[in-house]
Amino acid sequence: MKVGTMVVAGNGMAKIRAEVEEVSLVGFESAWLSNIFAVDALTACAVVGSSVEGIELGTAVVPVYSRHPMTMAQQALSVADACSGRFTLGIGLSHQVVIESIMGLDFSKPASFMREYLSVMMPLLEDGRVSYAGERFKVNATLDSAVEKRPQVVIAALGTEMLKIAGSMADGTTTWMTGPATLASHTIPTIKQAAAEAGRPDPRIVVALPVMVTEEPQAALEMADRYFAIYGTLPSYRAMLDREGSSGPSGVAIVGTALEIEERLEHLRTIGVTDFVAAAYGDEDQINTTRSVIVSMSA
Predict the structure, then answer these.
(1) Is pLDDT of 11 > 90?
(2) Do 6 and 131 fall within a single domain?
(3) Using one digit for the tens of pLDDT, what is the confidence trace for 67-104?
(4) Residues 28 and 288: beta-carbon distance below 8 Å
(5) Of 202, 280, 215, the residue nearest 31 (C-alpha)
(6) In terms of residue numbers, what domain contains 192?
């Protein structure tokens, strides 16, 4: 199981580059940037990847509704070129409140939208051309790229239908607020079956969770519920927390001593997680300590 970390994407390009340099030196194999309401994650990956060597960069995740699939493919290939191939494109639907209330776009039939989106984007990434006519997209296009191997594509997939789409059309999934019981009983078997039925390789399972190494677990769990409170209110994440039997984010946070953290990460590996992405939280010292401990476990 590879080990990566989330990087704060709201601090400006210079700080993002410095943080990626730091986590690369610590020993993380990948750094993942969210794309919410601050720095554009694709641009940041291109800028950072062109100057920081050796570490994979990924987006977790870029919303699809605000970018045409041809534009997304073109950007992804450009970022992969800038990163010398060390780039994974993570995309997702986002949330109804964001797409409709903030962006003013139609969020109806989201799974169908993603299926059509990938029907346009994936051929452009793989072959540089697409001819597709669907309900939403009618695209006849070609793209030129210097990239020898296309970037991997992972989908933020939580529900059954989205996992089937991710398994049959992309390279895997990236999850958030999804605990080990749900991963083992729902996420991993659903996406692996879909990939197998489509004749695709075993999917990449990128799992991001809050994590803190601490001798005061109760305080850390309470902090998790405060710090990540918004995710307990968004329907897609709420569904995963409910499936796990968790009242809030603290129910899936990985908290405890170094030994306890190691045992929980080992369990993720045994159930089929291919990449663990640490969303270390707390103050600067707590984040640095957590990251150092996690990297030492993967050495």
Answers:
(1) no
(2) yes
(3) 999 999 999 999 999 999 999 999 999 999 999 999 99
(4) no
(5) 280
(6) 159-279
